[in-house]
Amino acid sequence: MITQSNTKVLVVDDDKIVLRAVQEILQMDGYQVVAIDDAVEALAALKDASIDVAVFDIKMPNFSGMELLQAIKQARSDVEVLMMTAYGTVETAVEAVKMGAYDYLTKPFEDIDVLLMSVRRAAEKKALYDRTRELEKALNARDQFENLVGQSQQMRQVFKLVETVSHSTATVLIQGESGTGKELVAQAIHYRSPRKGKPFVAVNCSALTDTLLESELFGHIRGAFTGATGNKKGLFEAADGGTIFLDEIGDISAATQVRLLRVLQEGEVKRVGANESTRVDVRVIAASNVDLQRAKEQGKFREDLFYRLNVIPITLPPLRDRPEDVPLLVHHFLKIYSGKLRKEMVKVSPKAMEALTCNRWEGNVRELENVIERALVLCSKEVVDVEDLPREVLRVQKAAGEFEVFSLAHLPYAQAKRLARDAFERRYLSVLLERSGNNISLAARTAEVDRSNFRRLLKQHGILSKPNKVPENSRLQEGFEVGGVEDIEASNLSRTGFLRS
User: What is the pLDDT of residue 250?
Assistant: First the structure.
């Protein structure tokens, strides 16, 4: 619900009498108000992300309201702006709205309700924008296949298969190493299927003894075995209408395999100790970290059950075979654990990302997740560097920064070559940008690369430039970081009128 008490308004006017009057009017109506009589200081104040609405005069010395509007919309496009002026003209009003102002007010105000109504509507628009953004994030999370993250060709094929099979009722067998995300795939299938409103029940078959597993899956009646003091519904019945996920299916005993085969064939379950069967409508998704085809050939897994389960096979690639997904996963886990640990979103240095990308990840995505969580817990800086990573993750590098061969030798030639090339580009761009004083134009000229292409390379490799320095004689030097406005350089600011010498 929108309330004045949780809306913060920035008011800027060089006329201190008007400034105080507007401040008091808004405060009496319950708004949080930040009142400033200098436009440059106002830009610095906008670093406060909780500011929702800005109200300022269009005529101010040294730095006009129109220039302030342009700078605000570049730095904080989500802030709604109200312009005030005693020199109201249609041309000025139209120009302000075209530049992104929400409304235009003339002063002195004939009725303070005009001001309050305009601020209230602007605050409601800002709140609607924030709510829409949160909803989009929630939708994007679902679009990421229930936290399955990847952009490699292998994972794109998995995503496509998930979308295809979700609307059927066929049994799915997911195979892959431990930690590759088999349960996440099962969840993605369920929540994209017509069964999404019904239960999704997961059970780890290797975590229970044969007797307990049969009781959990099929249920039991009173007296069926020692300790069975009453009737119990099994997980198949609990999942009726939905999906049951049988993890580590390769570890179940021969007797349990027979009972499971009957459920798949007949669509019925018989509780342990019972004489009658109960019909169930359950989609079965099974998973195994062992090769069930080989287990079948070795006589360790029933052939008929294997073919019942293996209607639609999905194989998840190990993380070491898709190193291009590592940076994306790192960013994903940084967002998750920054929120859980209530920390500011931190970044990963290029060297640390290089080490993470080149690691073999025997524990796959689960191991990477643990490493990122550990790094965030232990790191007290804004950037995770190599010293924040576990020793076993790091790979020895030559003094010149080149990869040792063994750090890439487990990869196919094409992937190893691409990784080595990307690592070189990241190091080259980082060093060049540092030597150029974080001046993108100078760095691009040194590299003999077009500036737009140079910026594209920086963005591609996740290299964020530091704010450019504003000339000492600039009024903006007091509180405005150029880097916060998508890396606009001082020369560009001069051309657009932001800087005044």
Answer: 92
